[in-house]
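User: Structure please.
Assistant: Input sequence and predicted structure:
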Amino acid sequence: MPGVFSSAYAPTVNANLAPVDPQAQRLLDMISAAGGAKTSTGTPQEARAAYELMLSHSAVAASLSAEDLQIPGPAGEIPVRVYRHADSKPRPTVVFFHGGGWVIGSVHTHDSQARLLAEGAEAVVVSVDYRLAPEHPFPAALDDCTAATRWALGHAATLGGSPAVVAVAGDSAGGNLAAAVALRLRESGAGLAAQLLIYPVTDASCATRSYAENAEGYFLEAATMRWFWSHYLGDAAATAESSVIEATDLRGLPPAIVVTAQYDPLRDEGVAYAKRLSEAGVDVTLVQCDGLIHGFFGMTEYVDLAATESTRFLEAFRETLAAASDSG
């Protein structure tokens, strides 16, 4: 219900919450044992290569078709990958923005997540290969994502989607971009049905309690997140379009599913943004995933709890899209 908000993280400092899931901990132990330089001490090119090697695979939802397209963008063509179901049933269209701190990641690293999203939300998914920093600092990624969403709004029917129900989604930095696109399109009057923000980046200050609690050892580290921010912003100051928690007015935004992970530096800023949305009268579902770490949406093949929680927030998103379809 709009205006109603609660958070399991608000009253305590994790002492009474779940420990790290054992399967997630095994992944963390494997990463630690492998050694290697931390992302924040290397170059963007080195980080991209390592990330592509680690995540470029897909063993889920193989029944979906995937088509690579080039669409018009503000600085040339934008590569996108469109995921469709085998039947011709009109479905919601979801424009998906991958994570990776605006510096790393691609449609290849997030193929599994895009397929899970298409299956779980029962939607056509348009995954966007936006320009990366530092070669293309803010607002290049946001400009690309805005253009791709406008394109999807105009082409949903030809993609096999329902023109009346178009939403945005993203994980981590992609969640930041989804939130920022929703803010931009509200100002222009373009209608979005929903926004799915999976452990989103919302606050450039990097000063929340969860940054201190989860600074090291939980996959995404505080130093890495600050490194991402420095590359994304360059010499620019944070604004409400990059650090969306700074937006003064969140009224009139589409319904939001906001997902957080307990052992994640970004946890508290996700909760804070959900609270701000709710206070502005936006219909918000906050899905808090105890025992999990940042990036768990990409770990569903290895961590059973990640699969369970991903199913939970995708069901909530699917129900939000269905409600939008019924009201349309």
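Residues 304-327 form the longest helix (24 residues).
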